[in-house]
Protein 1
Amino acid sequence: MQLRDNLVLKVSTLRSRGVIIDVTVLDVMDSFASRTLHDLVRMIKLRGADTVIVGIQPEVAFAMVQLGLTMEGVPAALDLEEGLAFFNQNSLRKETGPRVK
Amino acid sequence: MKRNGNQPYVSASTPNATTPDQLLRELVAHLRQHRTDLREEWARRITEAQLLTAMSKEEIFAEATSVYDNYVEALETGTFEALQAYARNLSERIIPRGVETNEVVGIVLLLRDVLARSLFAKYQGDFDKLNRILDAYEPAANRIAITVAVGFVQERERTIREQQEAIRELSTPVLQVRERLLILPIIGLIDPQRARQLTEQLLRAIRTNRAKVVVIDITGVAAMDTHVANHLVLTVEASRLLGATVIVTGLSPEISQTLVNIGVDLSKMTTVGDLQGGIEEAERLLGYKVVSSHDLVQQT
Amino acid sequence: MSNEIRVAIQTDVDIVTARMQGRALGTEVGFGSTDLTLIATAISELARNIILYAKQGEIILEVIANSDPCGITVVAQDQGPGIIDIGQAMRVGYSTSGSLGLGLPGVSRLMDEFHINSQPGQGTTVTVKKWKR
């Protein structure tokens, strides 16, 4: 909860456009954790920034989808590096023209 | 002279009225005493019956000796653990050489026969005693035969299971065709266990190869039940959580029907008709531009 | 039986403890890393339910040895308000949105066996099992 409030505050003060949330250390993502994360992403979105989640472990991903936690609408990337690449690519696309959906 | 079954103890001095225990002990002593010739006789009969043809004469004799000693010990102690362990160990050694179940059962039954014959020869003058000796011998001998045969079959089943595992791993390669692109061609029958294994393999491969796009080609899959179809959807969703997009190719009309019937949200899944088209779509996603070689020549 | 571990569930930290114990026990049984994660996730889900709905309770972990295949049993017990409509509870949260369900149908998909016993006002016991393939 504290992390959430801090993060949302930071997004405002730093006028961030993108946030990467790294969950590499999580060995389990249950529905509670997933919902917390999803809420966080929505709040950041309301603050005008996009979020990408990185570092979900293969086993954790498997357990998550079994639970029905697909994190719909939330971009995901393999790790921090990929997360950064995601934002670079996206800002590039925004500059070069409309994104094809 | 008829023996009364209720009579609990009989004096040992009465030669014809011994307990089963004593009979077994006498039997064991006999088998120990004639160890050499009985063993040889057994080995000879094994060769004669053309059993264990994959093994040399010396090997057969060495194994026969061990089995013989374990056999006598099981008779004596009534415990089968040592024999069981030996049977498993023996099976482990001879299964890779192609020894069949009937051969193992055959040699154990031969030993039983060889020993029974020697008992006939020894007690032929005293049918009453022979009968009682056989009464004591039979159940123990049968249990030994079963122990060895079951041990062999179990070991064989284990080997088969291991081989199946290995074949499964081999039959589902995750191929990296170019950087960041994996192809998973699935061929044959998919049961829930294999589906699960495929997903685990794929998810790990996505991480190891840092794949961005995966093409799952199921042209070679004839049928898919709802469980496996659901599993396919889970695999697509899990891959996305690792940052990889899945393209499914080669869906047969039947499988498409199954997917529609279970209400799969097809918007979540990219499907392309065939593998070739799937790879092209993958390359497009990865930012490669597909140019025909003809155009390429003209450009330069 | 000595292969039984009980973890009292009252705070978030207890959830982590239960999950770690579950992993440790599962490793002993010989489960692979995917199954260990499924088991740990189920424990997490069940323990979270205890805190959310009953405030406190207990997670009991037990090895199922002496059987082929062997496995692990997880029991989540509480004396909370109980579930009035189990049928409905098993449907809630089925949607893939991150809605606040009881997560029970999800747990049943993570594990191989699922039993629930609940009386309104008397508490809930969920028993799940996973077999080693």
Protein 2
Amino acid sequence: MKSSDQDPLESLALQVSGISKRFPGVLANDKVDFSLARGEIHALLGENGAGKTTLMNVVYGLYKPDEGEIFINGNQVEIRDPNDALAQGIGMVHQHFMLVPVMTVAENLMLGHEVTRGLKLGLLSRVDRQKVSEEIEALVELYGMEVNPEAYVHELSVGEQQRVEIIKALYRGADVLILDEPTAVLTPQETEDFFEVMRSLVKQGKSIIFITHKLKEVLAIADRITVLRDGAVVGMTKPAETSEKELAAMMVGREVLLRVEKKPAQPGEDVLKVQNLHVLDRRDQPAVRGVSFIVREGEILGIAGVQGNGQAELVEALTGLTKVIEGSIHLKDSDVTHARPRAFTETGAAHVPEDRHKHGLVLSYAVDENLILQTYYLAPFASGLNINPRAVDENARRLISEYDVRTPSIKTLVGSLSGGNQQKVIVARELSRDAPLLIANQPTRGLDVGSIEYIHRRIIEKRDEGVAVLLVSSELDEILSLSDRIAVIYSGEILAIIPVEEATKERLGLLMAGVRETQESSQAAATPME
Amino acid sequence: MDTVFFVGLLSLALIKATPLALGAMCGLLCERSGVINIGIEGMMLVGAMTSFLGSVIFNDITGGTLPKTVSLLVGLLVAMLSAGFIALLHAWLSIQYKVDQIISGTVINLLAVGITNFTANAYIDPNHLSGVGVFTEVEIPILSQIPIIGPILFQHQPLVYVMLILVGFLQYALFNTRWGLRTRAVGEHPRAADTVGINVNRTRYINVTLGGVLAGIGGAFLVLESVGRFQKLMTTGRGFIALAALIFGKWTSVGALLSGLLFGFSEALGVRLQLGDVNELQALILLGGIGVAVLGAVWVILKARRRQEDKRSMPLVVGTLVVGLAMVATALLATFPEVEIPIQFLGLLPYILTILVLTGFVGRAIPPAAIGRPYEKQ
């Protein structure tokens, strides 16, 4: 390892000072100072849009800073592009993987500076897959991460792809690893494994910058924590000297309720009744396989599971967006198994969809128009063939103030709002329709702590008003803090439905990974569905 | 039908497939790097005209003192440069100005029609320019003496060999060289390529321009190895058929050549039928049979590669293959009455085949993932 023969005085692997980066209308980084000691895991914590990723993109050479300096091992360097960064020993694992799916692991690793054999013909030299594969095998052995160099990337699971990304950085000779929200796509178990990998990397002398907005993970793994807010550093601390509450307050700039306060549920009558539901996915493969559950008035049923285990298709079936192959769906007293989407909204299902851009909003419409997407044809918004602008206007003003949507005006295009405010527009529209059932699919994905707190509170309020809530989420914390009962979905089947009091992260994590509970333990631990 | 007829037919099919394969390789370079190119037709048309003008004018200037091959080579070079220049325009519009690439391609096609028709009306026709001639056939020693294969593959004009070499070379290069790896990465996941220091837009510029050069050769072929002079709109949709061949060939040069051969074969057959020396009905059943059999065979291979999933359609797939082979056998063994088929209909053959192929006869072809989207740094 390079680090072992370094002068101990130059113990800082990376230091940035006074970095500023402006985008049109935004100051993304404001004189940021940050340092990374050798062999350290330094967490960079902040809400979405706080400037974490921008800062790291500057370090990695993807952005040019407007001012500021970067030092590596004590020497000032200029990083103009990722090649410079790689040459300086900086590797980055992006939130969205930078792997070409139709290429093999070996091809992906050598891309950009290919190993060649035979005649030296510049760009037309023959690439040497064999040699790269051997080099990967050696790295794999050294760091104990299993990866097959000849596998095609699209055949790998998300966790495996992440390992490929890390090996890619190591293969390029990275001593400093920047990991951008690496745990967002992992199950709790995979996250544990991932932390092990991080610890072993540090033991080998690597230094890690860990970007995240998850407080628990920061406290579990980091040596030091730097918190960013609105592009500026608001503090630097150590896990031993702080708490989740304090970190959250630093991130948001005010006190934040981390755990939603809620009374015990008062379940009433059945609202949504799903029996033996089968649904196919887009490629006509079974996605939901024999799912049954009930959601009652005044309770929240959480559906936990790693993304891609049939949740998307389940929700589509429950909102009439996809065909049901077998089984039935009853909403209140009517059979809506084969109903059209509009029948669902009219029978009383409110839906906060998973992808707010694709399914929740019309981005090129204004806020007021987005607020009447399901009701535009009804009074008071419609009069004959015309839209009644005054009613639309009034509705928008009322909802904006009631749901705290921060928008310059009701005529602003929804596409130009921040993610949190876009989500609030959807929540306002759906919750204001007074439907007896609320289906919330990943309602807080990608939102910051402040918005999450707000949306959670609204969902609990709805429950207390007697609405039946179906919450789909891959965030265990969210499931645990909101749900009254928790159903775990794996590979299109519900493996167990357990009351929240009996649910622990470990137990849910195992179920989410597809480990079925044995008969005795599940009977002992869980009250089966009524 | 005898062997001589077949050898002649297949040899002609290879000749007819040459501009298609060259056009398809133009599309290959563009689309593998992420730029849609529906302007192949226009690039070929410009190449055809400039090759003619280049060779004629050079011949005039030198006063015929140099051998005609030199003039023809100059024509070829001019075609490559001018079509490359037109392709550079396409790249500039779609990369620099992020113009919708379909629109940009359409612009190229309209522009090419305008320029070439104008030049033909204003310069070529009034001056009664006639061509310098065509490249002479080059028989490859030894290989051309092999019975059957020799006359089909090794007794051609030089651009046919150039095409064959390019097909082999691109197939190798796209999957085995640094350039190929980078080009595919840029077409599939440009941001990933960017993060490892590959210049996405430069890669696209280079590939699109080189693609234009290939289309230029394809256009030049029509003049320098076929009719010997320029006629208005002489590409007659070959650029679009080339695009179909590219898609049918799953964005590989060998695949494009094979599907180009299918189109070339139908065109060759149309030509032979118009000469009236074969039984038309028999020939059509033969062509249909070969087409269906090829589709069936490709389908079987694809199914086999996907292994166990979806066995249900296997009878249909194998059935297609069997029906195709049966049609071929019938055509060869049975005797048919003489039926007159209008010449115009025979000329339609390659186009009908194009429609059949594009309506997805063999399942969906998956294009490069980032195709058609300009790259934005963020």
